[in-house]
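Lecture notes, structural biology module. Today: joint structure prediction for complexes of two components.
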Amino acid sequence: SAVISQKPSRDICQRGTSLTIQCQVDSQVTMMFWYRQQPGQSLTLIATANQGSEATYESGFVIDKFPISRPNLTFSTLTVSNMSPEDSSIYLCSVVLAIVTDTQYFGPGTRLTVL
Amino acid sequence: QKEVEQNSGPLSVPEGAIASLNCTYSDRGSQSFFWYRQYSGKSPELIMSIYSNGDKEDGRFTAQLNKASQYVSLLIRDSQPSDSATYLCAVGGGNYQLIWGAGTKLIIKP
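The predicted structure, tokenised, for the full assembly:
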């Protein structure tokens, strides 16, 4: 497996502001994903972070609200823009380590509270 | 639309007993199947992956796959209080994506 870190681990933000979450892996990975998990719910895929190009967003998620960057094979950021209380959630990055498998490994998550 | 179904529970099992967690999926072409454990306030952790029909054992955990019935299960033998968590079933959905079940909350009673 790999060591996956996320920063910040938690934050409390005011509505209307933006927060950028970082995901760092200690080795090059094939795929990186961003998920949202609301309290008591399962995982919802926000987007696939593509290295050097625009992310691929799932239905219901748009680039203006959740801009994503992936400048290299070990790092990605997710920004939650113009936040509202409905954005309060845990945000998780996951990675696929090798091209021959679709096994995903998760970072520790970022717990976001929007007031 | 590809779906993965799990009973949300909670499933309550006495300590030392066998916990049986079940999952069904809709896409008959799925090739990869996973069980993740998620403790409250933590991120999901991979327990088992299975790709072929039959059983796969790893310590106290056994994953069972039946592609004809589109059914995958996880057995936990000699259940311990530390096994209390939410168990997420995930199925390969193509393009390295996983389709996630809602999770089953397991409670092991001492």
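Point to remember: Chain B touches chain A at residues 32, 34, 41-46, 49, 88, 90, 92, 95-98, 100-103 (CB under 8 Å).
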